[in-house]
Write a structure and sequence with these properties.
The complex is a heterodimer of chains A (287) and B (268). Chain A has 287 residues and is of the alpha/beta class. Chain A has helices at 56-64, 103-109, 118-131, 147-159, 177-194, 205-211, 242-256, 263-266; strands spanning 9-21, 29-41, 45-49, 71-76, 79-80, 88-91, 165-169, 197-202, 214-219, 224-230. The chains are: A alpha/beta (287), B mainly alpha (268).
């Protein structure tokens, strides 16, 4: 972990802020993100944890390139990001598979505009079907497989065109507890095997600590970084390891102990809705 | 493994056989109605010119089928129906796609179309009969109108109903506009488009009978009905109604079979 300063930062988020116009907020704008600084070295797993409405999913949308209106800079390998790109993959909370395509065809969606030959694409798809353990289900349709399997397909689709960074937006939030913990283990295995940078957004503290090299704790109104916790435990991790439990409880304390909270969180100064309405624009928020 | 398959199979098979054995229940009401009809007609309680016996209807049916009159009427009606259906559906698909895919076109044409579709279909008859006469052209124009509206509404609605989160997936993977339309918007809209075409088929069949009844000229199943009622041949009227119903049922059933074939493996 000490060598990470020597490696170039893969993803650099510098002073990023995001405002929405809102008639309900003071001054007509709602500050969703304020002054976010995050430096993610190559190959690291960074978890962002926060309550609903802290802007963590908004931050992911900015990194993904779905929204270009923000303050500050987002750099990938020193280059500012422009729109969406193959070097940034994504796994959404809702798997977002196309219901009319089979598992293999859905994974191939990630390769539609990738510069590979048809043969290479077929190989990549087969390889990623195997990576997420779905051999034998290549020709199944999304409604024929379970939610956990659908999310595996989504992970394979996110990885199939070999992105440098994989963004994960509460990928296991909609799954039952057993499936969730199994897929967390799977994701850890995949991360170790593929050695790519991963940025996970979650509201599950245990998940954040279990998977992350760093855990970034965010707080709302406006969305900002409260603190960053380094998780120095070796992978794969053990949930019953006392050191793991101590770290998890430490982070959990940020959300549970009212005496530690800032006054603005106990009693918000202005009434701020949990979901930010954007007049004149359809609501397309993902948290 | 084997045990779980057995259980699943049992669960799947049990309700199926139960369903099969209960299917006859749907036939109880029609059978009772026919029995009652036959019984009343034999009692001679009602004027026999108004209520003919089922036997007489069967006789007429045999005569109509064996002399080929039914086929001549039916083929004339179906030829009109299909011509109108194809013209209406084809133009409906184009108009619906334009309304759904092109916001500026929708702003210009959408309000006019929404007003246009409020006009009852049969209110077009006077205008159509003045402009196109009473012949096949007028009927086909009328049928095309009947088929057009449901296709436009369902095509445009299906296209606009493409889930925003799937469109976002297309953006993430750098789909071009053409790729997005052909590989996301259209597949997602297909069930709705199919519903529109299916409705068009049913509407245009209903409108065929209406057209033959209101734009009286030529041969068709609707004309059989008119002939029957003018000559007080209730057997012909009842037979004509049954024939119309059977054709409608066949269209419905074939559309369902086609739908199952197209959408097998899909939830929608």
């Amino acid at each position: 972990m000490t060598t990470e300063t020597l490696v170039a930062n893969e993803l650099d988020i510098r002073g990023v802020g995001k405002r929405y116009a809102s008639t309900q907020a003071a001054g007509g704008t709602l500050q969703v993100l304020q002054n976010i600084d995050l430096h993610i070295p190559s190959g690291q797993f960074v978890s962002i944890v926060g309550a609903s409405g802290c802007g963590k999913s908004t931050l992911l949308r900015l990194v993904l390139g779905l929204d270009a209106e923000y303050e500050g800079q987002i750099l990938l390998d020193g280059e500012p990001i422009a729109g969406t790109g193959r070097e940034r993959g994504i796994v959404f909370q809702d798997h977002r598979l196309f219901p009319w395509l089979t598992v293999a065809q859905n994974i191939a969606v990630g390769l539609r505009n990738a510069p590979f030959t048809e043969g290479q694409k077929r190989e990549l798809v087969a390889e990623h079907v195997a990576l997420v353990g779905l051999e034998g289900f290549e020709r199944s349709y999304p409604h024929q497989i379970s939610g956990g399997m659908a999310q595996r397909v989504a992970i394979a689709r996110g990885l199939v065109n070999r992105p440098r960074v994989l963004l994960l937006d509460e990928p296991f939030g909609a799954l039952d507890a057993l499936t969730r913990s199994r897929l967390q283990g799977e994701l850890q295995r995949i991360w170790q095997k593929e050695k790519i940078t991963m940025l996970l957004v979650t509201h599950d503290v245990e998940e954040a600590v279990f998977l992350g090299d760093q855990v970034v704790v965010m707080q709302p109104h406006p969305g900002r970084i409260r603190r960053t916790v380094r998780v120095g435990l070796p992978h794969p991790r053990n949930r019953s390891d006392p050191a793991f439990i101590r770290l998890r409880d430490d982070v959990l304390g940020d959300f549970l102990d009212p005496s530690e909270r800032g006054p603005s969180e106990v009693l918000p100064a202005a009434p701020v809705p949990a979901i930010f309405p954007v007049p004149g624009r359809p609501l397309q928020l993902a948290w | 493994m084997a045990r779980s398959v057995d259980a699943a199979e049992l669960a799947a098979v049990a309700p199926l056989t139960a369903q099969g054995s209960r299917r006859w229940r749907g036939l109880v009401l029609p059978a009772a109605a026919v029995a009652l009809w036959w019984f009343t007609s034999t009692l001679d309680l009602v004027n026999s010119a108004l209520l003919v016996s089922p036997v007489q209807v069967l006789d007429t049916a045999w005569e109509m089928i064996s002399t080929g009159r039914l086929w001549r009427a039916l083929s004339a009606s179906l030829a009109r129906e299909l011509t109108g259906f194809f013209i209406g559906t084809a133009s409906g698909l184009v108009l619906g796609a334009l309304l759904g895919l092109w916001p500026r076109f929708n702003r210009m044409v959408g309000p006019s179309f929404n007003t246009f579709k409020q006009i009852s279909l049969f209110a077009w008859i006077p205008l159509i009969s003045v402009w196109f006469g009473l012949g096949d052209v007028a009927k086909v124009v009328f049928l095309s109108l009947a088929a057009l509206v449901p296709v436009v509404v369902n095509t445009a609605g299906g296209i606009r109903g493409t889930p925003a989160n799937l469109l976002e997936v297309a953006r993430v993977y750098g789909y071009t506009r053409w790729q997005t339309v052909t590989q996301v918007v259209l597949p997602s809209a297909i069930p709705s488009i199919f519903t529109g075409v299916y409705l068009a088929l049913i509407y245009s069949w209903l409108a065929t009978i209406g057209a033959e009844y209101l734009l009286v000229s030529g041969r068709g199943v609707g004309n059989l009905l008119i002939e029957g009622s003018e000559h007080f041949q209730m057997d012909l009227v009842i037979f004509g109604m049954v024939a119309i119903g059977v054709v409608g049922w066949l269209m419905n059933a074939s559309a369902r079979v086609l739908e199952r074939h197209i959408f097998k493996g899909r939830t929608i």
